[in-house]
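## tool: complex_structure
## caller: assistant
## args:
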Amino acid sequence: MNPVTLAILALLLPAGAFLLIGVLAPLRRSGRPAAFLSIAAVATSLAAAIRTWQLASGSVEPIRAAWNWLPGANGPLATVGVLIDPQSSLMLILVTLVATLVQIYSLEYLHDEPPAAFGRYYAYHSLFVFSMMGVVLSPNLLQLFVCWELVGVCSYLLIGFWYRKPEAARAALKAFWTTKAGDVGLLIGIVLLYRLAGTWDILELEHMVKGGTLATAGLGVITFCLYLGAMGKSAQFPLHVWLPDAMEGPTPVSALIHAATMVTAGVYLLVRTEFLFHQTPQVLLLVGWIGGITALLAAIMACVQTDIKKVLAYSTVSQLGYMMTAVGAGFAGAGFLHLLTHGVFKALLFLGAGAVIHAVHSNEMHDMGGLFKRMPQVATVFIIGTLSLAGVPAFAGFISKEEVLGATLAGGLTGPFVMLLTGAFLTAFYMSKVVFLVFFAAPAAPGHAHGHTHDDGHHGHHGDPPFLMAGPLWILAIAAIVIGVYSTFFHHAEPEFASPGWLTPVAVAMGLAGIVGAYLTYQTRTISADTLASVFAPIRVAAVNKFWLDDLYLFIYRHILLAFARLIGWTDRYIVDGVLNVISAWTLDGGDALRRIQTGRVGDYIFAVAAGLLVLMLWMRGTL
Amino acid sequence: MPLSAYLSLAAVLFSIGLFGVITRRNTVGILLGVELMLNAVNINFVAFSRFHGTALGMIFTLFAICITVAEIALGLALVILLFRMRRTSTADHIDWLKG
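## result:
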């Protein structure tokens, strides 16, 4: 089959699964069959995606197929189709791979859910996979925007999967609103882009930029607007606040949507439209700085979290900052590489955390401890994920993090580079803290462990998870190692930029220092965690309070937005409605006054008729 | 006698009838006023018929008189029904149309 057919097949299978599960209520309520249908669809998509990638990496030119969508006077206004190149096909593999594994994992993780909820879960998942692939394969920005909004909806639905839980419902809304704030920017950006360039097609735009026929006046506003959309979706400071709250959703959802795929859509958008951003260096500089700030602040916040999923969430925000910084430095390829490796090992970490939560029935790390003996498999894969994230050589995150750091330095972003390097230390520190606290430190006091049931109500697991959960974990762990070993020892791509020789040792040393620091603090307790806390007290307070961003947003909402809304409401109620009320009151009063001339007495009516007739006659004679 | 004399008589008669219709409180009185007005019209018909030398107005007057008889019968029947329902035949007390 040719790559276009394959890509469309991969795209439409989950859509078909979603429609079947969504429309056929008996199928959805039956639970497991719906899940199997969804898994079968996404697994086939994975196979098609791999074959597409094989075919696409063989061809030099990107393969594009598009059909007319919105007809216009001079050719179609917009098209739908697929654009297959090495980037999109690799991303396609990442999406379908993680989605397949997460869906299999969810079979066990959510097996206490009622069948109807189970079916609903898989319907949302299928829709998500379809929408995400739509974003990835989109050949133009309008189609991308539509799919972009669809993944936002799926994210909302899946965060709020346990919608009876108030925190989950609130987190879902928060995620939707916050990303929507960025999406407004994206929409404005693509509309402005159409006015400037007259097309939404990515290849045509690239052609115009290369040919120098695209006007650069006003392009800065457009790229800034596009970046706003990416900022919301990819949880960049200051719009990152929704991602930690999104952890209220089921853990497999966090692994798929809020770690591996959807949140990276923003980075992917910037990678796709890199050539536009290169025309506007100021915006690129902003992207780089915001990325660095995000990476550092999120890493700091991750250090003070006690909830294992929150640590991973802030870690995701931080890593997204890394990717964005690389894009901002002008080397989107490095950011994209980190996106791919991060997708693998962060999904692994989330699924591993899910296995722990499944066994312990709590998200809090102080309820865990000494779990290495109880669940050695989970511990092993989690450590593999941690080493990858910390950038230890021969693991997946090593080369990609080096690339990001090198790109940042080569792009001349010294400030963000320092932030990223500090972030690398903190990343290793907080992830090792999780590993030591959860798997090696002394177990929690008895009776503590079952105090909080956070995530699901499954009882009685005190060991490694069953095959359906362990399998996906091992596949991802092996993938992380294979990618790591391959990229560290065997693959030496032509570097786009020259990194100084001291970079690799310094970065690795940072990671190792973080691991050692966490070991001394949380395992041997040579360094007291309380002393650390008091030394860094101001930063700690700020980090615990999330740098007061939530409070700021709440203030803006309560005291500015609501006050404005009240003002508008008052104007509507008393000015706009007031005018109408006065008019209607006058009409009523007038009617009431006129009513009184209807006396009901026959004589009066006859008099009126006679008088009227007299007036008419006089008028006809012209004497009046 | 000139035509204007007849027409003036008819106009005076019509006005008296109208005045009666408007001012009388008794419904029977109102019907009497209506009779006067109709007869004023009949005088006009006859007067014009005579001065134009055609019989058409006279024939019409005969019809009008016949219809007037029927109308009065109907009017009196209404008055009787009204009296039965409201125990009054005073027009001022009958104000169902009051707004």
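## assistant note: Chain A touches chain B through 13 residues (CB under 8 Å). The mean pLDDT of chain A is 86. Handing back to user.
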